């Protein structure tokens, strides 16, 4: 349940991002561009709706960096005073129960030979996939062996975030003791993003290009910097928040719906526009809430709910996608009417995420924090990250 202290704007942004991920994974199998919608809607609009899953994950990374840093600053006052054991317990109680559940379900479906879930590449195995999922290196495993089935594949981005969670306290307690060095390291990571991607593309691209740690860390680093700036400037001019929201929203729309011409113009440098726009929008939403003038977002409650459930939806939405795709193909439905399957996919992914959160994730998280003595989270004008 939402609290008065949650930033509904950031919830909504996460909701938009997770919906784009679900749309992307369904569209790989039932492309909107091959349905009747293509007869009267422009291709740039349809492609923008269905082919921005990776860009949405980059937005998640920026949000994660921002929210984790804001939460740490609110709890400990300074990053150099962060308690690593407590930080790890908070993250583990949020992440591990749900991750263990999805790994167990995927393993059972593989052993039962259910289509879409069987790991059948010669150099892959169930044991290898489990070790990669629980060892935070699904991206590395896929780079070495090829794509895993979709339910496992989505964990590549979780691997990036999990490594961030492991490294963040260590960085805060070492490099973070000298603020300018910490900021310089973060800035260097942000600035490196397009160049790292160019190098990965030149080296052959593929999975290493799509799922590498460093570009994801660059997006997270910008979120960390944005949170530090938000703390340093507690009360900016009132005009700044709406301007940042407008600029951030416009930049994200340009990346999502004018991707082809933008790529031709700036190539990999468009990643700066993507993560910079996300950070601008997040800062604007944060300062808007701090000024006690958040947007009401009437009629967008479900979208905010998707944002709050983004971790559960992300890990479990492929069960919905595969079930609908199996029904679509076995029923011999006409591809021209494939667009009719999109709304049910979004609704069912949300319902499944809600059921997992209320019936499993949240009870496990509460029990673990009570059992091991983790302090309750302070109310913030922002919430915890998806993972």
Q: Name the poorly predicted regions.
A: 376-385
The proportion of residues in beta strands is: under 5%
Order of helices and strands: HHHHHHHHHHHHHHHHH
User: What is the straight-line distance between the termini?
Assistant: 18 Å
Q: Give the rounded overall mean pLDDT.
A: 92
The share of residues in helices is over 70%
Question: Judging from the principal axes of the Cα atoms, what is the shape?
Answer: globular
> What's the number of domains?
1
Described by strand count, sense and barrel closure, the largest sheet is: none
How many helices does DSSP assign?
Answer: 17
Radius of gyration: 20 Å
Secondary-structure class: mainly alpha
The count of β-strands is: 0
- What is the quaternary state of this protein? single chain
Question: Secondary-structure blueprint of this entry?
Answer:
Blueprint: H1 8-27, H2 43-50, H3 53-76, H4 84-111, H5 126-134, H6 138-145, H7 150-153, H8 155-173, H9 179-202, H10 206-211, H11 213-232, H12 240-257, H13 259-266, H14 270-290, H15 301-308, H16 310-330, H17 342-371
Helix pairs in contact: 1-3, 1-15, 1-16, 1-17, 3-11, 3-14, 4-5, 4-8, 4-17, 5-6, 6-8, 8-11, 9-11, 11-14, 12-14, 16-17
């Amino acid at each position: 349940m939402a609290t008065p202290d949650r930033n509904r704007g950031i919830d909504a942004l996460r909701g938009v991002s997770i919906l784009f991920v679900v749309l992307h994974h369904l569209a790989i199998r039932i492309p909107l561009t091959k349905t009747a919608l293509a007869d009267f809607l422009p291709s740039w609009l349809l492609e923008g709706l269905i082919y921005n899953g990776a860009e949405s994950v980059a937005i998640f990374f920026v949000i994660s960096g921002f929210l984790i840093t804001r939460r740490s600053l609110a709890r400990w006052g300074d990053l150099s005073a962060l308690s690593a054991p407590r930080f790890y317990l908070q993250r583990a109680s949020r992440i591990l129960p749900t991750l263990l559940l999805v790994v167990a379900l995927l393993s059972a479906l593989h052993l039962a030979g259910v289509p879409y879930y069987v790991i059948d590449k010669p150099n892959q195995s169930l044991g290898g996939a489990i070790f990669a999922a629980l060892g935070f290196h699904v991206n590395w495993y896929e780079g070495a062996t090829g794509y895993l089935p979709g339910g496992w594949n989505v964990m590549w981005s979780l691997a990036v975030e999990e490594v961030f969670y492991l490294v963040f306290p260590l960085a805060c307690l070492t490099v973070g003791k000298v603020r300018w060095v910490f900021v310089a390291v973060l800035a260097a990571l942000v600035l490196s993003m397009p160049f790292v991607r160019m190098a990965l593309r030149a080296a052959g691209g593929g999975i290493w290009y799509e799922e590498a740690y460093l570009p994801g860390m660059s997006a997270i680093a910008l979120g960390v910097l944005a949170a530090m700036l938000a703390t340093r400037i507690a009360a900016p001019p009132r005009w700044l928040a709406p301007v940042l929201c407008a600029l951030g929203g416009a930049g994200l729309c340009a990346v999502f719906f004018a991707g082809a011409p933008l790529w031709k113009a700036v190539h990999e440098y468009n990643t700066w526009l993507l993560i910079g726009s996300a950070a601008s929008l997040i800062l604007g939403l944060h300062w808007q809430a701090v000024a006690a003038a958040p947007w009401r977002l009437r009629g967008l409650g479900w979208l905010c709910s998707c944002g709050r459930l983004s971790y559960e939806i992300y890990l479990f939405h492929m069960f919905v996608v595969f079930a609908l795709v199996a029904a679509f193909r076995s029923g011999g439905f006409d591809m021209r009417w494939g667009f009719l399957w999109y709304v049910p996919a979004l609704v069912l992914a949300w319902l499944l995420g809600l059921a997992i959160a209320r019936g499993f994730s949240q009870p496990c998280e509460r029990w673990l924090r009570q059992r091991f003595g983790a302090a309750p989270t302070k109310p913030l004008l922002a919430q915890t990250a998806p993972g």
